[in-house]
Design a protein that fits this description.
The complex is a heterodimer.
Chain A: H1 15-38, H2 49-66, H3 75-84, H4 88-114, H5 133-145, H6 153-167, H7 169-172, H8 175-178, H9 181-202, H10 208-224, H11 229-251, H12 275-301, H13 306-321, H14 324-334, H15 347-373, H16 376-384, H17 389-404, H18 406-419, E1 429-430, H19 431-439, H20 448-476
Helix pairs in contact in A: 1-2, 1-4, 2-4, 5-12, 5-19, 6-9, 10-11, 12-13, 12-15, 12-19, 13-15, 14-15, 15-17, 15-18, 16-17, 18-20, 19-20
Chain B: H1 2-36, H2 66-99, H3 104-118, H4 122-133, E1 145-146, E2 150-153, E3 156-159, E4 161-165, H5 167-195, H6 201-218, E5 223-227, E6 230-233, E7 239-242, E8 245-247, H7 249-276, H8 279-287, H9 292-322, H10 334-346, H11 349-378
Antiparallel strand pairs in B: 1-2, 2-3, 3-8, 4-5, 6-7
The chains are: A mainly alpha, B alpha+beta.
């Protein structure tokens, strides 16, 4: 039996009538927009301009109003109503979003794929209205490797493949070796990466003056694990410096300075490095350096020694208060003034130091948040077990605090990766810089859009993958309190 | 004795190291400057700058001093930051609320927006808008008018200028309205505390802020007219708009990318803030008989704002610092005008970089002090 139909109040009794009528109107409205945007047909061309424009919206709105029936008993309809059709306002917004998507698909598709040119390797093939991916294809090597000589690019590839393989060791490690992983990732892996970049990618004495210091520091830290706690303090006071001096002036004296060169490898100066590989190199090193520095300053800010606390606070607030671009300006124009005249630091190293110090301040604040969030009982429990300052922090406090701040640290690292294009200030050209260079090439004028879209896609993939990975990490190490 | 030594030695070593490093730097700087014949000092600030700036809020040309050039840059930085903050806040709040919408499409659309713009470097976005998107705009002679008065061209956005008569009367009427609103609010609070009566402060405030300026038009002799930009031919192929206010494309690209980028972070702050208020709070408030509006105003918002405001202030600070990326597209902000052009001309690297850094440092430290004060004020007082 059919009850009386009130069109202003759709109800369950006339479910079928409303359902058919509503979905018909809704489909008509979507079809109208669809035909309009994909086949440029205007079904409602006979209406005056303004009405023709609003027609699908009004139609769709009425359609959605008709099918908004609560507890209809049809699962799909209830789901639809719950998700996109809860009230009039939501219905209009949903319609608008559907229309915007349908409207914007054809131009985007045609620009990206249909009208785009892929073949060839000159500008002449790019006659269509779409994107010119030929441009990207031709310039691909420059975008990936910068001005690095074509014949030598296997060195970068080899280093990156080797480092990725070595970085993935953690996934395959058996339980027996799991406990050495931290040592591996914190000390050994960065050292290997450094040597790879030093030997293969640079092939010359770029970092050389620093390598003594790094070798000395790493050696003394490794040996430091086996020094009894009683003498540790004095050990770290004396040994690293002594080792540095020994290495520099007694072991690697003049004749061995050429150690940095492998036979048959040409030296490629850092000015020629560039493109995406430079983005990776800078991100990688800054990531490695900024973390321990940040941790040290986070601990310093919570230290009981007032002088150390003040210095840490000053350091953190200074770097957090200035924009990165001025820091890089400083490293480019002001920093050379502060060094002895014959002392020269490569600009890549200067940029890495500047970015590391800058991001270290942010890492320090994030870690401090984690330290503060730990209950005081943890400190007291560790102390009551007779642990000293370092033992307490390494075995009890830091593992818990770092676990708490995984999202914050991931955000800082993401910011770091996104900040790397700023190194154009010191004259280094990573991928965005190379794009700007390629854009001004007289043979390839007018393809700025393609280049930026290409770089945006690459950065988006990197950053999105990082943020998803950090989310997984956060879920994995989540502990309930 | 040993115990004491362990307390003092680390501090002593740190301080000595810091002093040594700074001493080393200062010593080298002195020698370097002597060798190059540069003298240290801030006297150059009053010298004639002799360079022009394309876009300036205050009167400026080459005959003004370096200090004036510094002010021009600072004002341009503040202009871009303020516009960016306003747009980013509006957009961020809308997107943040949309992220919590029960509507699947809106929710996903907002999520897409956040994930999309957050994961692309800001500098790349600025370049994209400036070199790719805004370059596709029409030339001045081909531009179509928006609403008949706005012209969006490759040379920038031309908007009508306001021409005021008796502007001071209008200004004072707004000041008077604001003072009256503050007084009424205080009075209303007292009345409510003493007698429990509620005065519709919000309605009165809205009325005041509209009616007083309106009165100034009717009685105070305030007048307003618009100067619409008009196309003018300079040469056969060169056209320009005259009259009105012109916003250069650098400013548009910068504000657009800054606000689109920062809005994603503000949206996340807003979402976290609203989600951070327990459901029980809402239910408890409703169960003691507050109306939905009162629940929002008296229970949800105060608690949500407590979570939202500190990170959002941080984002404002980030936006201000990020506005220094303007140097990459030649928008004359503090970094470009002062740490770029002025530094090239004077060669006073240490002075100029230190002034620039000090300016940003002052800005951010004063904002974080303000935020600490605010945090302390709104922190829940636990017994």
């Amino acid at each position: 039996m059919m009850s009386k139909i009130n069109f202003l109040r759709p109800d369950k009794d006339n479910l079928n009538t409303f359902l058919y009528l509503g979905s018909f109107l809704f489909l008509i409205s979507v079809l109208d927009v669809f035909l309009n945007s994909f086949f440029s047909l205007n079904l409602t061309g006979f209406l005056p301009g303004f009405l023709s424009f609003l027609f699908p919206l009004i139609l769709g709105f009425i359609g959605l109003y008709f099918i908004r029936i609560e507890f209809s008993g049809i699962k799909q309809l209830d789901l639809l109503n719950k998700h996109i059709n809860t009230n009039n306002f939501n219905a209009v917004l949903s319609l608008l979003i559907i229309f915007v998507i349908i409207k914007s698909l054809p131009p985007i598709l045609s620009w990206f794929v249909i009208d785009a040119s892929f073949a060839g390797d000159t500008k002449d093939v790019c006659t269509g209205s779409g994107a010119c991916w030929t441009y990207i294809k031709v310039w691909m090597r420059r975008f990936m490797y910068g001005m690095y000589p074509n014949a030598e690019q296997w060195r970068i590839n080899l280093s990156f493949i080797a480092l990725v393989l070595m970085g993935s060791v953690g996934y395959f490690a058996t339980d027996r070796f799991k406990k050495y992983l931290t040592l591996y990732y914190v000390v050994i892996y960065p050292l290997i990466a450094f040597l790879f970049i030093f030997f293969f990618i640079s092939g010359g004495p770029v970092f050389f003056d620093f390598s003594y210091g790094i070798i000395a520091a790493i050696l003394s830290i490794i040996v430091g694990f086996f020094i009894p706690a009683k003498y540790k303090f004095y050990y770290f006071l004396i040994v690293p410096l002594a080792l540095y001096i020994t290495l520099k002036y007694f072991i690697f004296f003049e004749e061995y300075v050429e150690l940095g060169k492998l036979d048959g490898l040409n030296w490629v100066e850092t000015g020629a490095w560039g493109g995406l590989s430079l983005t990776f190199i800078i991100s990688f090193f800054c990531l490695i350096f900024c973390f321990p520095i940040g941790m040290a300053f986070a601990l310093g800010r919570r230290s009981n020694f007032p002088l150390i606390r003040y210095i840490s606070v000053g350091f953190i607030e200074f770097w957090r208060g200035v924009p990165l671009i001025t820091v890089l300006f400083m490293s480019a124009v002001m920093f050379p003034m502060f060094l002895p005249e014959d002392f020269f630091i490569d600009k890549l190293v200067r940029a890495i130091i500047a970015i590391s110090l800058f991001e270290a301040a942010y890492v320090a604040e994030v870690i401090r948040g984690g330290l503060q969030a730990l209950p005081r009982g943890q400190y007291e429990a560790a102390k009551s077990l007779g642990m000293g300052y370092w033992k307490m922090h390494i075995f009890v406090i830091l593992p818990q605090a770092l676990k708490l701040v995984i999202p914050g640290i991931a955000n800082t690292f993401l910011a770091l990766v996104k900040d790397t294009p700023l190194i154009f200030v010191v004259g280094l050209l990573e991928i965005v810089g190379m794009l700007n260079l390629a854009k001004t090439n007289p043979k390839w004028l007018g393809f700025a859009m393609e280049g930026y879209v290409f770089a945006a896609i690459i950065f988006w993939i990197i950053c999105y993958a990082m943020s998803k990975y950090s989310y997984n990490l956060e879920q994995k190490y989540k502990t309930d309190r | 004795m040993n115990f004491k030594l362990k307390d003092i030695v680390p501090q002593l070593i740190t301080v000595t190291a810091v002093v040594l490093v700074f001493g080393f730097f200062t010593y080298n700087a002195q020698i370097n400057m002597e060798n190059r014949g540069i003298d240290f000092g801030y006297g150059f600030l009053s010298q004639e700058s002799s360079f022009d700036v394309q876009f300036s809020l205050i009167e400026y040309d080459g005959s003004h001093s370096y200090f004036r050039a510094y002010l021009v840059g600072l004002l341009n930085t503040i202009l871009v930051s303020v516009i960016g903050i306003i747009i980013a806040t509006i957009l961020g709040v809308i997107v943040g609320v949309a992220r919590l919408s029960p509507n699947y499409l809106i929710n996903k659309f907002a999520a897409f927006y956040v994930e999309f713009f957050r994961n692309i470097p800001l500098l790349l976005q600025i370049f994209f808008w400036y070199f790719a998107a805004l370059r596709a705009l029409p030339l001045p002679q081909d531009a179509e008018a928006i609403f008949g008065v706005f012209f969006l061209t490759i040379k920038g956005l031309y908007v009508p200028a306001f021409i005021w008569q008796n502007f001071s009367v209008f200004f004072y009427s707004i000041v008077a309205a604001i003072i009256a609103i503050i007084v009424i609010r205080m009075h209303a609070k007292r009345v409510q505390e003493n007698q429990g009566k509620q005065i519709p402060v919000f309605l009165i405030s809205i009325g005041l802020i509209f009616i007083l300026p309106l009165l100034s038009f009717l009685i105070g002799g305030v007048g307003i007219s618009f100067e619409v930009p008009v196309l003018k031919q300079l040469a056969t192929t060169s056209f320009i708009y005259e009259g009105g206010v012109s916003l250069p494309p650098e400013l548009i690209a910068l504000t657009l990318s800054l606000s689109l980028y920062t809005a994603t972070f503000i949206a996340e702050c807003v979402r976290a803030g609203i989600q951070g208020v327990g459901k029980g709070q809402k239910e408890a408030a409703a169960s003691i008989g507050l109306t939905p509006n009162q629940v929002l105003k008296l229970v949800i918002m105060p608690q949500a704002l407590r979570i939202i405001i500190p990170p959002t202030t941080n984002q404002y600070l980030n936006l201000t610092k990020n506005s220094s990326l303007a140097a990459a597209i030649a928008y004359p902000d503090l970094v470009l005008v002062f740490a770029g052009t002025a530094l090239m001309q004077t060669g006073k690297a240490i002075e100029i970089v230190s002034i620039t850094m000090f300016t940003y440092l002052t800005l951010s430290i004063s904002i974080s002090l303000l935020m600490n004060w605010y945090n302390k004020k709104i922190a829940i007082q636990e017994k």
